[in-house]
Amino acid sequence: MNKLVILMRNSFLFISFFIIMFSLGFLEAQKVPAIYVFGDSLVDVGNNNYINGTFAKAILPYYGIDFPTKKPAGRFSNGKNAADLIAEKIGLPTSPPYLSILSKVKNNNKKNVSFLGGVNFASGGAGIFNGKHDSLWRSIPLKEQVEYYSQVYEQLKQQIGASKLQNHLSKSIFFVVIGGNDIFDYLNSMDLQKKNTPQQYVNSMASSLKVQLQRLYNNGARMLEIAGVAAIGCCPTLRLKNKTECFSEANFLSFKYNEELQSMLKEWQLENKNISYSYFDTYAALQDLIQNPTSHGFVDVKNACCGIGELNAQLPCLPSSNICTNRQDHIFWDPVHPTEAVTTIIVDRIFNGPSKYTSPINMKQLLHESIAKSLSPFNFLLLLGLVVTCYYQTKTI
Q: Of 198, 41, 238, 235, which Cα lies nearest the Cα of 127?
């Protein structure tokens, strides 16, 4: 009897070990392989540095003052931005800017470059609409970013084949942060205001975004993190329009756009049922920090840390600007963009946030859902059988 008990215990230990190794191996195989980023200055990691003739570049002091290199790094921030911090959450390096990769290919005469590790297509100043092509503030609008991605998709398909590529992309995150500049454009254009009511304009924004999301889907995107527009009327540059208080017209546009965006995403998912997405309510998250600053460690919710003039917002952050001594207690880094401290809280909420800020799920749940979907019926039954076997082994010992 003792020998039988020992044998059964040894069997139990062996099966337990097998289950653990199987589970760990499976989870490792399902790890997010890449992040593909689309958007504006909130997630640009240096693409604009490679656009000739544009002033929309974060290349001057004091940008990057809190970045690991302590130098300007193409981020419109004092430190890391959301693209960096999301990558850290997932355990990946920051996806490199697409134009920097093209530059290296051109300068080093490299023909075969892999984009499997992720790419960042975002561009400071970009919008859902075509934006500023002919001015000194040129950026890469979303349509053009998606076109760049389509070229990457075709190159990857040639490199590894359509089946392997789809498996890779279905486990990758597509991170989209766009829309704020379109609202700035509407507020600054009498022509746009004459042609569109606010509701018509935000409807057009949402429908135009849907077209680009569908293009991403057609080229392999299945798992998306999509951020709404923040309460941009509370940024320092727009507070100047309302005696240092939040500019309600801008916040109204942001709020209405986010409503349309959420409605569009629900509709889009019904049309493409193998899509998983997480929407983040940037508006509510930023408002919480502005309305309850001390509970989050902030002191100044109105002034830019770096800038010139009233609220440090009459001119952008320049080498001659005033700069605050404690970036950690400011909501805004420059007249438009948040500090790294704010972005860190925002990214924490994107990843782990409650339904107050995320819907229908947060990013962490999005990743878990992806793993569950990719678990084949055979593997599921095998894992279930091993668990049941272990259970009955313990009951009989």
A: 41
Strand, coil or helix: 37: strand
Give yes or no: 376 in active site: no
Residue 27 maps to a domain: no
Q: Is 337 a catalytic residue?
A: yes
pLDDT digits (tens, 9 = 90+) for 140-154: 999 999 999 999 999
Q: How confident is the model at residue 385 (pLDDT cuts 50, 70, 90)?
A: low
Q: Which domain holds residue 368?
A: 33-396
Q: Which residue in the list 182, 254, 321, 337 is annotated as catalytic?
A: 337
Q: Does residue 131 have a pLDDT over 80?
A: no
Q: In whole angstroms, what is the distance from residue 99 CA to residue 52 CA? A: 11
> One of 139, 321, 334, 370 is an active-site residue; which one?
334
Within a domain: residue 17?
no
CATH of the domain at 264: 3.40.50.1110
Give the pLDDT confidence score for residue 133 in this predicted structure.
54
Predicted TM-score (pTM) of this structure: 0.89
Q: CA gyration radius for the chain?
A: 24
Label residue 29 by pLDDT band (50, 70, 90): very low
Does pLDDT of 383 surpass 60? no
The domain total for the chain is: 1
Query: Would you call 288 a catalytic residue per the annotation?
Result: no
- Of residues 45 and 388, more confidence is placed in 45
The residues near 343 (Cβ < 8 Å, ≥ 6 apart) are 42, 77, 80, 81, 82, 85
Q: Using the Cα atoms of residue 232, residue 237, residue 240 and residue 245 in order, give the sign of their dihedral.
A: positive
Assess contact for 75 and 64: CB atoms under 8 A: yes
Residue 274 lies in a domain: yes
Does the structure show a pLDDT above 90 at 132? Answer: no
Nearest by Cα to 276 from 212, 201, 316, 226: 226
Q: Which of 41, 95, 172, 370 is catalytic?
A: 41
